[in-house]
# Entry
Amino acid sequence: MLLVTLAWAKTPKYHYVSIKTDKGDCLLRLYNETPKHRDNFVELVKEGYYEGLMFHRVIHNFMVQGGDPNSRYAAQKQPLGDGGPDYKIPAEIQEDLIHKKGTIGAARDDNPAKQSSASQFYLVQGRVFTPAALDSLEQFRLKGKKLTAQQRDIYTTIGGTPHLDGNYTVFGELLRGVKVIDEIAVVETDERDRPLADVRMSMKLLTRREALNLEREMEGLPPKTGFLTKVLDIFYSRFY
# Structure
């Protein structure tokens, strides 16, 4: 019986967040390779920090940014982008976690340690590059720094924002709803890149059971929803 119980106590491989917006819904997977950003984001989502906040900075073919708590009740034309908790997250920049389309990155100011804002984030839209365009990017914007084979493959197929690599922490990616970024990115904006019509968000952390069933679904397996599952789940934390 103990072995059966332990088998049912399996922990999901990742944390997942459902993001609902005025333009559609997304499903986000957080990277385990960036644990400080992952854990901070999980705690903010659990406490409802992002409920009703706006995507306050939107730039077509670049990214859509949100997470400023001052945006919840912001008046029209009110400048946004400076709000957030009074702490920063240490940089967790990794070479293989790049700014491909659909990833989530942590916004930051110009601090030399590249520490991240505790709450503000951006979802990458970017664009698809030709090999020649990447050559030009290396020569001029990256001052001769060469892109890796992985970067060239991703940015000539999926697309993204290669000039941000190495400067900002990427800490997750959308499994569903990448096209929602495209919908948000084309809204009309003012001179500060704030949408003229508010685009708001809400977020929900998937529970342990929801995450386990999602991972089963991705493996082509049916979800566990039976009576025994529900009984055993009573004995474990709702989250993980």
User: Anything to note?
Assistant: The beta strands are 15-21, 24-30, 55-59, 63-66, 88-89, 103-106, 116-117, 121-124, 170-176, 201-205. The domain at 14-126+161-206 is CATH 2.40.100.10 (Cyclophilin). Confidence is low (pLDDT under 50) at residues 1-7.
